[in-house]
């Protein structure tokens, strides 16, 4: 679970685990296709099991409302792009993120059906990023590949630190550092997930509606 609301609009600890798992998987590409498929299933199973246990434990403690953000375009983070000679997104990582999100969606629906009084809203970070990256200027971004704070290529070869190079206008960058979004990107995500209208990036209800649900 995220340590704070601010963290929840960046990468949660589960998403960091997801990225770590992707790194391990990328190091095992010499394995057969069947072995890689088995590895992927085990990877998903481990994360979904952790999610299920965390939500069930919180439910036991009295929690009834859960706002969950799925994994975004993991392959388009600067830390992933920098591994490609041309700085392109890793489609393999993005496919894995999409597969995990499908499993997460099913898990939440199953938990809501079996745990009386549990309500949830699942935000589609991946879908929002796809739409934003397809037309970044519409959202005010001029750079969706580089980190605003970092060093060397794509600003992604080192962590953001007090002596790191900074971009001239952080509001035009989607990424603050090699993993996290800028404040502007986080605000746009919050607006999309709390939007009080037709559901586009949340299911089955948005975060604002979740707040006003009367839980048992």
Automatic annotation (TrEMBL):
Recorded family membership: Belongs to the 'GDSL' lipolytic enzyme family.
Record key words, sorted: Hydrolase, Lipid degradation, Lipid metabolism
GO annotation, biological process: lipid catabolic process
Keyword Hydrolase belongs to the record: yes
UniProt source species: Panicum miliaceum
Protein name: GDSL esterase/lipase
Source species, domain of life: Eukaryota
A molecular-function term among this protein's GO annotations: hydrolase activity, acting on ester bonds
Keyword check for Ribonucleoprotein: no
């Amino acid at each position: 679970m995220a340590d704070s609301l601010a963290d929840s609009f960046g990468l949660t600890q589960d998403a960091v685990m997801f990225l770590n798992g992707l790194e391990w998987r990328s190091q095992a590409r010499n394995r057969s296709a069947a072995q890689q498929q088995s590895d992927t299933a085990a990877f998903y199973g481990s994360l979904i099991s952790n999610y299920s246990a965390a939500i069930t434990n919180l439910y036991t403690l009295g929690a009834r409302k859960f706002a969950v953000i799925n994994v975004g375009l993991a392959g388009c983070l600067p830390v992933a792009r920098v591994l490609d000679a041309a700085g392109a997104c890793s489609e393999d990582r993005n496919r894995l993120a999409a597969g995990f999100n499908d499993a997460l969606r099913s898990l939440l629906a199953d938990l809501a059906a079996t745990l009386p009084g549990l309500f949830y809203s699942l935000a589609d970070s991946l879908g929002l990023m796809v739409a934003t990256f397809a037309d970044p200027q519409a959202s005010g971004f001029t750079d969706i590949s580089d980190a605003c704070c970092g060093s060397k290529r794509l600003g992604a070869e080192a962590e953001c630190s007090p002596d790191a190079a900074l971009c001239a206008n952080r509001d035009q960058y989607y990424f603050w550092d090699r993993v996290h979004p800028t404040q502007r990107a986080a605000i746009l995500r919050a607006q999309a997930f709390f939007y009080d209208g037709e559901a586009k990036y949340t299911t089955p209800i948005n975060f604002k509606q979740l707040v006003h649900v009367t839980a048992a």
